[in-house]
């Protein structure tokens, strides 16, 4: 297996030295789409928030700066990303605003609080059964809670049309999972546009 393919596979479940490199790459290129996604969610200072696939913890860090009386919980199934995210968010963890859990979205752990907002960035492409997983996530959400699923496609030759097509697929998943008021947002970014699809748990 060549080194490029090995690095690509690391974005699924970063491990070892290559996992550390993948985490740094995600941190370098992920800030803009994390901030954009979180702004679209209109997170309030007392919200309880769940991030699925937190990677190096960029979205967790940004959200914890907004939240004052609420909490941000994150799950990721990479031990390497858990280590990086804990280091990045040590102050939020110490204050009790941040909780990071090693877990797989296909086997969600129990939570002791329902969520106002949920977001996931460049993670749904790795889910084995997106519709079932989105239904399981819905069960963790408050009534009228909002979910945001963001993807920036990095496949060879990806364009804005690629992002739109992915957005339509995610829209279909959310509809089948029972979400309503679904809307799709696009953002021009380098090297290719990102798409965010939002839905409401009615």
Uncertain parts: 1-14, 16-24
Fraction in helix: 40-55%
Strand order, main sheet: write it out. 3-2-1-4-5-7-6
Describe the main β-sheet briefly.
Answer: 7 strands, mixed
Gist of the model:
The chain has helices spanning 3-10, 16-41, 58-66, 79-88, 90-95, 130-138, 160-176, and strands spanning 48-52, 71-76, 98-102, 115-121, 141-151, 180-187, 194-201. The protein is α/β, with parallel strands linked by helices and 202 residues long. It holds the Pfam family Methyltransf_25.
Folded structure, characterized:
It is a single chain. A 7-stranded mixed β-sheet has the order 3-2-1-4-5-7-6, with helices on both faces. Helix 1 packs across helix 2 and helix 2 packs parallel to helix 3. It has 7 helices and 7 strands, in the order ααβαβααββαβαββ. It is 42% helix and 25% strand. It starts with a helix and ends with a strand. The protein has 202 residues and is α/β, with parallel strands linked by helices.
Features:
202 residues; alpha/beta; seven-stranded mixed beta sheet; 42% helix
Detail the topology: elements first, then pairings.
Blueprint: H1 3-10, H2 16-41, E1 48-52, H3 58-66, E2 71-76, H4 79-88, H5 90-95, E3 98-102, E4 115-121, H6 130-138, E5 141-151, H7 160-176, E6 180-187, E7 194-201
Parallel strand pairs: 1-2, 1-4, 2-3, 4-5
Antiparallel strand pairs: 5-7, 6-7
Helix pairs in contact: 1-2, 2-3
């Amino acid at each position: 297996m060549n080194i490029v393919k090995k690095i690509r596979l690391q974005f699924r479940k970063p491990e070892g030295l290559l996992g550390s490199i993948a985490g740094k790459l995600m941190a370098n290129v992920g800030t803009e789409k994390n901030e954009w996604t979180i702004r679209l969610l209109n997170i309030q200072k007392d919200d309880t928030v769940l991030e699925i696939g937190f990677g190096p913890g960029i979205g967790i860090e940004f959200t914890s700066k907004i939240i004052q009386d609420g909490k941000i919980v994150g799950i990721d199934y990479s031990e390497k990303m858990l280590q990086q995210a804990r280091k990045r968010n040590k102050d939020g963890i110490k204050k009790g605003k941040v909780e990071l859990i090693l877990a797989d979205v296909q086997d969600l752990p129990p939570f002791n609080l329902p969520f106002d907002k949920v977001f996931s960035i460049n993670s749904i492409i790795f889910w084995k059964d997106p519709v079932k997983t989105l239904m399981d996530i819905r069960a963790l959400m408050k009534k009228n809670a909002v979910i945001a699923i963001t993807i920036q496609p990095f496949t060879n030759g990806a364009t804005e049309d690629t992002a739109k097509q992915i957005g339509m697929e995610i829209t279909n998943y959310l509809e089948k999972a029972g979400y309503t008021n679904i809307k799709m947002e696009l953002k021009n970014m380098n090297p290719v546009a990102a798409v965010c699809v939002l839905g409401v748990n009615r």
